[in-house]
Design brief:
6-stranded antiparallel beta sheet; 8-stranded mixed beta sheet; 465 residues; alpha+beta
Amino acid sequence: MHNEFDVLVVGAGTAGVPAVLGAAARGLRVALVEAAEEIGGTLHLSSASISAAGTSLQKAAGVEDSADAHFADCLRINHGTGDPELLRLWVDEAGDMIEWLLAIGWTCDPGEAVLAPEHDLYDRPRTYRSTKQGFSLIEAYQAQIDKAVANGNLTLMTGTRFCELLLDHGQVCGIVAKSGEEVREIAAKAVILTTGGFSGSARHWQELHGLVPLRYHVETVRGDAIDPVRTAGGRLWFTDYCLPAFGGTRRLDSPASAWIHSDILPSRRPPWEIYVNAHGERFMPEDEPSIDARERAVMAQPNWAFWMIWDERIREEAPPVFRWSDEQLDELLRGDNEDFVVAENIGELARLCGLPEKTLTQTVTLYNAGQAVGSDMWRRQHLPAPIARGPFYAVRHYGCSISCYPGVQVNKDLQVVSTTGDPIEGLYAAGEVIGIGFLGHGFLSGSIVSSAITFGRKLGREVLA
């Protein structure tokens, strides 16, 4: 077996880098294995919003906050779901994590906590916007990784994919990894899994949720830890939790298959358009203020899909709904992509969208009737204009995956547990590999990145202590 390390971290992303930095700072012999050729993982696609309470940035802005208040607010938003023990562990240590990020060169814009309208709001500002999205963290991480490598107590192995766990009488003692054609066994006293979620794995999506949605993901992040952990006797949790982000569109110029290109937050741009499902029917008030309710509404639709429909008057008068230029939108509408449709009348629009013509016609007629008298049958409040003057437009949107609720189950010490509930000795996990289900059945602003950094850093400071 090749070099034995004290700590072996698998995955150089949001949680993995803080873990190796913490362990290396303690003088431990540390290895970091990463499937990609560079560090960062999903941070390459992440907005890297981070939430925490009781920070120096909040105090400087005159915001009074505490871990207690943060925890209570999380329970309000997630309706008491998830794992309160791990949730509490995160919020208790998140404030100190922000101070650590500031110390290693991370910055946020505008330099203080904000309210984040893309998720249900906290009761006070406690979300921090990374200045250059995920790249702010990657740059700060890379500088610290370089120092640790130069100091000689960190070995970085990029382009190396984790294949299986090595066990000795039930205790994890290393991993098998593959670099090119070379298969290696790497021994370690403790293994920390920070491989991320399974968004890049259609197989795991089909197994765990029965469908493969549009996914915003990094190709190398594909649930590498799930099968080895189960083989070693571990189990998954929160397999019954699932929630998509609302309203992604197919993105044709990116490896990621969907993302939010529409300004669909009612708090920022009240909708002029209507949304219809695969049956040609509306399924929610388009100006529904609850982000959670919107996400659950789209998840209930066939294939998590819906059409946004509007007319020429709305295109002329409404604030822009897409982040594309008019020229780009016209190119998509006039092209051969089935998700972008333009027609001279509603009947033709229905046929091109594959919707029932009679139903869609009735849906538009009923909406226009309610709009005319200011009383919508779905209780929608913002009713600026009918959909009545051709040409008519339709763009298909999707509930899209940006993170994974199921993951490898851990205990309060972030030890991976077996099917009996006992810890698997020598094996730990942090970040999206443990899923985000512990945060509750909803999205808490800034919680995914924040908890990953916090837990990774905690393991780096404490493993083998």
